[in-house]
Amino acid sequence: MSGSSKNRICDLLNIQYPILMGGMSWAGTPKLAAAVSNAGGLGIIGAGAMRAEHLKAAIAQIRTLTDKPFGVNIILVSPSADELVDLVIQEHVPVVTFGAGNPSKYIERLKEADIKVIPVVASDNMARMMERIGADAVIAEGMESGGHIGEVTTLVLVNAVCRAVSIPVVAAGGIADGKAMAAMFALGAEGIQMGTRFIATKEADTHQNFKNLIVKSNIRDTVVTGATLGHPARVIETRFAKKVKELEVKSLQEAEEILVGSLRKAVVDGNIEEGSFMAGQCVGLINDIKSVEEVIRDIISEFHSAVANIIQEANKL
User: Fold this and answer.
1) Is the pTM of this model over 0.90?
2) Rounded distance, CA 287 to CA 311, Å?
3) In the prediction, which pLDDT does 4 show?
4) Across the strands, what pairs with 149?
5) Residues 6 or more apart in contact with residue 48 via CB below 8 angstroms
6) Distance (Å, whole) CA 97 – CA 44
7) For 166-216, how does the pLDDT look when each residue is reduced to its tens digit (9 = 90+)?
8) Cα separation of 251 and 194, whole Å?
9) What are residue 65's phi and psi, to 5 degrees?
10) Which of 16, 37, 124, 271 has its CA 20 to 30 A from that of 69?
């Protein structure tokens, strides 16, 4: 699988494989993003917790690590969203993905700057709106994903979004291998986005404690915190996550307070007692820490095998 009009996502983004890295705050570093881009996917800098000066430095760094296309993810609830959009335009970033909101007010300016725009959507109605106002593609992210989530499963959401729009759809949420990629393509997706799988790689700057938690967890070892606070997020179940859940029942203010800075404590410090380890349900499918190149190579190989098996079984019917 490659570009050259064989796949619309590959052609749109000028990449070899239709595999995008999720825009992960703190975890989406230039080093990891560059490794994904160099391996043939699209690496994405997670600008969620950044101000403009931090993102400017990150963009400068990734350009020393790769000459391949890369992207920047902007979280729309960030107080710095406006200045981050201004910066990606100034820096001529090739691709921008958006999460946690409606990026309508930015799309025209980004398109005028010849930047590819790919919003994350949690419904088919949102996907239709994004197509109508000029998005190049959409990322349909189901509730199996790590971090902030919607209410619809990946299987149902991707199916509905692919029926709703004519622009390319990237599937996300609970995807960690080539079999899941084949399943998403069967629904009509033309690419996948992964976050958790890329955290458990050698190139990820995340703390080793985070990587170890991913590798040893099973598919039932994540919980959703923050739902009563209005921003549900899927995290690995730790004592801290259990404490947050308890406080959501007893004291919303206390729950809100202890969550402040908890993602950084997890990703950067590996703080098991105070960190919020955002990860998807696919943790139970990840049992080793490989290089990014190995991960992508294995996914593409397994994808081809899975598709061949589907064709073989279909011919029996």
Assistant:
1) yes
2) 28
3) 41
4) none
5) 23, 24, 25, 26, 28, 73, 74, 75, 78, 99
6) 8
7) 999 999 999 999 999 999 999 999 999 999 999 999 999 999 999 999 999
8) 34
9) -105, -20
10) 124
Distances (CA, A) of 250 to 153, 221, 222: 29, 23, 21
Report d(CA 19, CA 21) in Å as an integer: 7
The pLDDT tens digits for 24-44 are 988 899 999 999 999 999 999
81-90 helix and 52-65 helix, angle to the nearest 10 degrees:
40
CB 27 within 8 A of CB 147: no
Going by C-beta distance under 8 Å and a sequence separation of 6 or more, which residues neighbour residue 226? 232, 233, 244, 248, 255, 259
* Residue 295: half-sphere exposure toward Cβ, Cα within 13 Å: 33
Compute the mean pLDDT over every residue in the chain, rounded to the nearest whole number.
93
Q: What is the mean pLDDT of residues 59-88?
A: 94
Residue 73, pLDDT > 80, answer yes
User: What mean pLDDT do residues 85-105 have?
Assistant: 93
Between CA 303 and CA 317 the distance in angstroms is 22
